[in-house]
Write a structure and sequence with these properties.
Radius of gyration: 15 Å
Structural class: mainly alpha
Number of strands: 0
Order of helices and strands: HHHHHHH
C-alpha cells in the first residue's frame, strides 16, 4: 500500500468521523450545516485517475449517507463533484504546471484556490440541498441552506488549508 493511499484513507476516516460526530449536529440559524467532507474531493491532484476519483467520492458520500441518515443525497452530490473536480481544477492551474500538482493555497495561490474550492463547495451544496428538499415551494429556505452551508464549509476549508503545513 502506497503512502498516498494511506494518507487518503486517514483523511477519509477523519472527515467521516468529524462529520458524523460533530458537524452533523451543528445547524446555524436552522439552515447552515457545515459539510466539510467535500474537502476530501477538493484535495485530489490533477493526474489522479478519474475512475479512482469517482470511486473515492461515491464511497465517501455513501458512508456519510449512512451516518447522516440522508438516503443517497451525499453520495449523489459528492459523485457529481468528483466528476467535475478535474475539469474545474484545470481551469485554475497554468498550462505548464506539473502533472502531479495538488490543489492547495501554496501551489496554485490563495485567490485561485479560493475560487476553486468555493465553486466545488457551491456545486455540492446546490445539488445536496436540491435533492434534500426535492421541491421549490419553500425556495427562500432552500437558498438560505445553500448559501449558509456553502459559506460555513468554505470558511472551514480555508481555515484548515491555512493551518496545514
Amino acid at each position: 500500500m502506497s503512502i498516498d493511499v494511506l494518507k487518503r484513507v486517514v483523511w477519509f476516516v477523519i472527515l467521516c468521523g468529524v462529520q458524523a460526530l460533530v458537524l452533523n449536529h451543528i445547524h446555524l440559524f436552522n439552515c447552515a450545516t457545515p459539510l466539510l467532507y467535500v474537502y476530501f474531493v477538493v484535495l485530489f491532484p490533477l493526474n489522479y485517475p478519474k475512475w479512482g476519483l469517482l470511486l473515492w467520492s461515491f464511497m465517501l458520500g455513501l458512508v456519510i449517507d449512512m451516518f447522516s441518515n440522508t438516503p443517497g443525497e451525499a453520495a449523489a452530490s459528492l459523485t457529481l463533484v468528483g466528476a467535475a473536480q478535474p475539469y474545474f481544477f484545470q481551469l485554475f492551474v497554468q498550462r505548464d504546471a506539473p502533472e502531479d500538482i495538488k490543489p492547495s493555497l501554496r501551489t496554485i495561490g490563495p485567490t485561485k484556490f479560493s475560487f476553486y474550492a468555493f465553486t466545488l463547495v457551491l456545486l455540492h451544496c446546490l445539488v445536496f440541498f436540491t435533492l434534500e428538499s426535492f421541491n421549490f415551494f419553500n425556495w427562500l429556505q432552500w437558498l438560505e441552506c445553500i448559501l449558509g452551508s456553502t459559506l460555513i464549509t468554505f470558511i472551514l476549508i480555508m481555515t484548515i488549508e491555512s493551518v496545514k503545513k
